[in-house]
Task: inverse folding
């Protein structure tokens, strides 16, 4: 009995449970006044600006390399004219949301965990509390709203850049006819593909900010602890993003057209 | 009347028993000084008083209300009565000095910006700092940060001030000035104060009563005179700052 309890207390179930309780509290706090508008806007700006570069590069090169492989693969069957139609769907549904999610987990998740972790070990989080401020509401909630609003924006932007990357390869390198490229992309494309990507993006943003705030605010043990919190934040959010992506893939319909 | 009452407080971290039945009462308007060796749990004890740490056993009453049983929401409301001077100052890195001090003022009260500016300036002047409002914490020395931490607490004019080593790391002159300031504040606003310190000179300047934390318990309390004339060997050794005596080093 004791052994089982010890296992549960130290195990991944306990950790995930604790994290879920934390996230639930932080998300609940988003909807109760006072609203931390200033802090939220500041975080949105920071997440957007700090991620723009890495999102641009990731989306561009993913679009390019994926187009290259698809084009060459389809060419084997003489079906290279259809390769762009696959691209529209896979970029907006899978590639860009997941890769943007992972990149932002590395970029923003790490910085949230390091910032809050430093605040924890220097007693700034305790100080917030004694100044009548709920640290979860003041620090975690604004970061969760900011991330879950900014991720879809970054994903839309990434979609555009990814398609541009695809255009560069198909049209400029492989010399596909531009009109064929556009027609091919539009032939199998539906708005639902983009919406699927955006639903995922909102959930990935929530995962990144709540997991990273959780590790940051639970940091113990000085500079070393901050380093550990940062690593755990990035690894855990990345894994959870991939798990969530699979779950969405399972529950969201592939297409809304019959 | 007892303002703060600590009853049989126990706290362990893992296997390590830090507090093993602390009992302590502090009267309204009194300045109580807690002395004790490094790592004996003084800061841990202080954090229990504002509910930052929950005890394993025991209770804490402020104005007769249990801090331990309060919900987070009730505690946050109660914080208006408290100010806490942290051992490491705990200034907010991302805010300048003015905003650090204004933070609590904005949370708890409805002051205008002009009133806030005045309070910020006055409280900084009272700790001997001038023209630092626009500086960031990273631009200040350790001792200056410490004094800003003090200014942030006194700006709130609370009922209870908890000072965690307010004079450690300050030069002797500044240290004496801060001890006097603590006395002034306690007389002027009749605040209840609990002060943690290693600095016996400061302790004797500010204390109404002194208690020593040793091996997880308050082993003796008394007025300054009583403590100076104690027959307790542990206490005696600590006051004299001698490494020879019953206090063991592990
Ligand atoms: N969150 C924590 N987790 C684990 N151990 C802790 C924690 N906080 C404090 N401790 C331990 O409790 C003991 C008492 O710590 P505390 O900070 O209260 O000492 P202190 O009396 O304030 O010492 P100092 O005079 O050096 O500030 C130390 O051994 C410390 O390692
Ligand atoms: Mg301490």
Result:
């Amino acid at each position: 009995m004791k052994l089982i309890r010890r296992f549960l207390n130290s195990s991944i179930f306990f950790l995930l449970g604790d994290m879920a309780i934390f996230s639930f509290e932080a998300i609940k706090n988003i909807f109760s006044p006072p609203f931390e508008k200033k802090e939220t806007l500041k975080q949105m700006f920071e997440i957007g600006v700090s991620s723009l570069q890495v999102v641009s590069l990731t989306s561009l090169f993913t679009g390019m390399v994926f187009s290259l492989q698809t084009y060459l693969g389809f060419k084997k069957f003489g079906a290279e004219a259809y390769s762009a139609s696959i691209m529209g769907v896979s970029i907006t549904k899978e590639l860009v949301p997941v890769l943007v999610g992972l990149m932002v987990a590395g970029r923003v998740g790490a910085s949230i965990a390091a910032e809050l972790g430093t605040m924890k070990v220097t007693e700034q989080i305790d100080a917030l509390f004694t100044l009548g401020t709920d640290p979860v509401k003041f620090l975690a909630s604004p970061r969760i709203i900011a991330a879950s609003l900014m991720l879809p924006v970054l994903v839309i932007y990434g979609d555009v850049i990814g398609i541009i990357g695809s255009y560069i390869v198909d049209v400029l390198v492989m010399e596909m006819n531009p009109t064929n490229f556009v027609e091919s992309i539009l032939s199998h494309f539906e708005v639902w593909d983009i919406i699927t990507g955006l639903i995922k993006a909102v959930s990935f943003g929530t995962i990144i900010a709540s997991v990273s705030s959780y590790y940051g605010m639970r940091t113990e043990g000085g500079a070393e602890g901050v380093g550990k919190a940062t690593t755990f934040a990035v690894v855990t959010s990345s894994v959870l993003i991939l798990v969530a992506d699979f779950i969405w893939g399972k529950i969201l319909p592939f297409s809304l057209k019959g | 009347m007892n303002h703060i009452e600590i009853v049989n407080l126990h706290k362990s971290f893992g296997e390590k028993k830090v507090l093993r039945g602390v009992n302590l009462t502090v009267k309204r308007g009194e300045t109580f000084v807690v002395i004790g060796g490094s790592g004996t749990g003084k800061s841990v004890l202080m954090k229990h008083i504002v509910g930052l740490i929950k005890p394993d056993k025991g209770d804490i009453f402020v104005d007769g209300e249990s801090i331990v049983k309060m919900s987070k929401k009730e505690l946050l409301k109660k914080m208006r009565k408290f100010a806490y001077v942290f051992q490491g100052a705990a200034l907010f890195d991302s805010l300048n000095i003015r905003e650090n001090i204004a933070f609590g003022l904005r949370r708890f009260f409805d002051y205008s910006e002009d009133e806030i500016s005045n309070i910020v300036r006055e409280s900084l002047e009272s700790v001997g700092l001038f023209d630092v409002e626009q500086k960031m914490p990273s631009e200040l020395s350790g001792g200056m940060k410490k004094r800003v931490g003090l200014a942030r607490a006194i700006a709130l004019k609370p009922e209870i001030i908890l000072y965690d080593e307010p004079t450690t790391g300050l030069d002797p002159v500044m240290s004496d000035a801060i001890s006097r300031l603590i006395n002034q504040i306690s007389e002027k606003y009749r605040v209840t104060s609990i002060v943690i310190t290693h600095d016996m000179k400061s302790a004797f300047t500010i204390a109404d009563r002194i208690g020593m934390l040793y091996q997880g318990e308050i082993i003796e309390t008394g007025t300054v005179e009583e403590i100076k004339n104690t027959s307790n060997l542990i206490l005696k050794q600590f006051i004299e700052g001698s490494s020879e005596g019953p206090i063991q080093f592990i």
About this structure: DSSP finds nine helices and no strands in chain A. Chain A touches chain B at residues 118-119, 122-124, 126-134 (CB under 8 Å). The first helix of chain A runs from residue 2 to 10.
